[in-house]
Amino acid sequence: MAPKYKLLIIDDHPMFRDGLKTIVRTGSNYEIAGEAGTCAEGLAQARSLKPDLVIVDISLPDGNGIDLARDILALAPQTRLVMLSMHSKVDFIATAFQAGVSGYLAKESSREQLVQALDAVMAGRQYLDGSLSPRVVTELLSRPNEETRTADAAYGKLSRREQQVLRLLAEGLAPAVIAERLFISRKTVENHRTNILAKLGIKSPVALVRYAARLGLIDLDTED
């Protein structure tokens, strides 16, 4: 019998993780090596378990799956990643693939699509969920070599932590809540906010939200 691929699941909802584990266990190619609910836990698990494959949610309490994917691949370049998301905006998808993920699925995808995605990426192929809108797929495929809007020059000057704080601020979280999520002090969050506004040349919270939305860092669409 061929050895099974070691799979790590990173999602902050325990019931959703349980559902994924049930689906994965119906196949014969994978074994659940571990699970995590945050970026920090996921990176620690990836470091210790050295999984063959990681399923990661794009939205996590202490960061986002795209940054986590970069961190995991820097740690273990041979690892394959499949990203799950409720976002179908082209910039999220393009940025995820540019970060190195091999598959992208909408969270409402069927169990058959999940298994297809896992099998495809472990066979060395990329997988994009066919349930995503044709417009998104067409636009993504039409610009494979273009940089996404998150490659904005000013955004690139922000540190990784500043990028995390920017996203959380743009989502409307208060500095105290951000501090709790990122395990830093409120004063540190406020210092980051000051630096972010200065580096981006932004004067108001409303402008910050608009900037983040323009880059695809947050999704203001209510229809997705």
Describe this structure in words.
With 224 residues, the chain is α/β, with parallel strands linked by helices. Helices cover 50% and strands 15% of the residues. The chain has eleven helices and eight strands. It has helices at 14-25, 39-49, 65-75, 90-99, 111-122, 134-142, 153-156, 160-170, 175-182, 186-200, 205-214, and strands at residues 5-10, 30-36, 53-57, 59-60, 63-64, 80-85, 103-106, 127-128. The strands form two sheets. Strands 2-1-3-6-7-8 form a six-stranded parallel sheet, with helices on both faces. A two-stranded antiparallel sheet has the order 4-5. The longest helix is centred in the last third of the chain and has 15 residues, at 186-200.
